[in-house]
């Protein structure tokens, strides 16, 4: 087992978790009506 395969600790988050956090923030902002609407998509 190489030294590079060890986990880097709890302080660093993976790209997967970073994407989940970004998506959660966007969903929360959309739910509270903070994000602007796109007029041609709203019917």
Automatic annotation (TrEMBL):
It comes from the Bacteria. The chain crosses the membrane at residues 20-42. Keywords: Membrane, Transmembrane, Transmembrane helix. This is ABC transporter permease. It comes from Amycolatopsis albidoflavus.
